[in-house]
Amino acid sequence: MTTLEQLSQTTGNLQQTVTNEFAALDLAALNYKPTPESWSILECLEHLNRYSRYYNPALSNAIAANSDGNYVPSITYSWLGKKSLDMVRPQNGKKHKTVKHMNPANSALGPATIEEFLKHQQDLQQLLQVAKSANLNKKAIPVEFFKLLKMRIGETLEFVVIHQERHVQQALRVKQELSAKAAA
């Protein structure tokens, strides 16, 4: 299985998880916060929506500009790509402070946040398909918070998916805490 196929499969799993685990919850459950500093389920998804609003169009433009038939199926990683991926891997339990405009804490959020997340996942699935004709090793995506730095198309696709996996898992932990609290 190629990296793009793996990313597509993970994206599909994330769509299913969000639909199955969160779509039927009421607004109080979706906005439940285990602690005042932690994020609710909707805040986790809104954080991802904010990243998708930037990265999906950036990826779309980069893929379109670099789809000249020189498809390279394997991804090579820059130091920036490796560092970014290591930081957002779900296995990395270390908390990271997010940049202010990407922090959804204390936002007024509702079910539209879930709908937007699922729409971004559909867009990402299309990008992963179109990327099969792109040079994945082309440095073409400006980093959201420091646009002078650029990541490669392939590593950015992987960053987006892994970052989403991290925060969907975070949202699932919030749901578990809410269930445990309700059962107590």
From TrEMBL:
Residues 17-171 form the DinB-like domain. It holds the Pfam family DinB_2. It comes from Pontibacter populi. Signal peptide: none annotated. This is DinB family protein. InterPro entries: DinB-like, DinB/YfiT-like.
